[in-house]
């Protein structure tokens, strides 16, 4: 959250697997309840309906405005970020990212969707919130995640933002984004989860708990037998080869460019992929994109203020 005049700029990285703000990250699961859930957890009450937030991940859909889930998740993200800053009301400027190849087609629909209620009032985890949504900036995913590293981007660089649903590929030449060489591929970490589930089922005839796969992805301790870990590692190596093949399809060449890897998929690529260590840089902060959205929105606000005055 960045204060600006009498407003707060809040970056929202509305991923398919997780919602990220500058300080908060939680899964995209949404379940609807007519009455208050017995086990509350992250619960949002909006217009008389209870929403349980973050107990799973939402399946991939190309159009996030197709239902109200991401709107509810956006409100939960705003509330969680505001709680972290002891704010419960005020003017909000949203800064949001969408996949690179979808920006032109979905920018206006996404803005209208998120601003469908410009005066949202709701409860989140027992706290009351009332906001005025002043405006919403839409940015392409990928580039904002490396905000602050502009001085490193001489020559040719590529950004691979590997989220849950997609990998956004950004091609830069002398710090400038080459739009016609930017692409979005459906090869996000969600694809690895499917591969891992199938590999364990094919090898052992057993269903692996998603929480175990999640721990494996991020290198946390997985309390399972070595034979299962071995299958997961082979699956991860295969998945990382697919990531590298996809990058090479779009002209990635480590001899001529640096690679910046952001998003959850970077945790797998770092451990199981093949890359040139001296020319590959991993952005480990899962909230990096949301922070970048905020800074780019701040620049836009200041530029627009100069035009008006």
Keywords for this structure?
34% helix; 309 residues; alpha+beta; Nucleotidyltransferase, domain 5; six-stranded mixed β-sheet; ten-stranded mixed β-sheet; single chain; 7 helices
Helix coverage percent of residues? 25-40%
Shape: globular
- SSE ordering: EEEEEEEHEHEEEEEEHHHEHEH
Total number of distinct structural domains: 2
Looking at the structure, the CATH topology of the largest domain is: Nucleotidyltransferase, domain 5
Supply the CATH architecture of the largest domain: 2-Layer Sandwich
Supply the CATH class of the largest domain.
Alpha Beta
N-to-C CA distance: 25 Å
Strand element count: 16
- At the fourth CATH level, what is the homologous superfamily of the largest domain? ATPase, nucleotide binding domain
Uncertain stretches of 5 or more adjacent residues: none
Mean of residue pLDDT values: 92
Structural class assignment:
alpha+beta
The largest β sheet comes out as: 10 strands, mixed
Beta-strand residue fraction: 25-35%
* Radius of gyration of CA atoms, rounded to a whole number: 20 Å
